[in-house]
Amino acid sequence: MKNQQEIEQMAEQTLNSLNNMQQLEANEYLHSKILQRMNDNRKVVPMAYNRVMLRLAAVMVVFIGINAGSFYMLKQSDNTVTVKKAANADAFANAYNLNNNVDSY
Hints:
Strand content: under 5%
Oligomer: single chain
Structural class: mainly alpha
Order of helices and strands: HH
């Protein structure tokens, strides 16, 4: 195990080596290329977002259209079934002479 004095000496050496470092200059071409790619990516994201939203809206319109069409079709079929049931009930009543309010006994 190292004692406290050795640890402090190593820390001082590390800090002194950091003080002597110089800041590096970036290559201008590389810097401009990176900035250009970052700007290009910002332009692409809204376009993709618009396409997704357009597709989602189209799917919702189709979904609502199918629901409205099926509701209309089912509503019509319910009316025809009711009319057929009423016609069948009238035919049954006529066959057994149930429409008359006259007592038949």
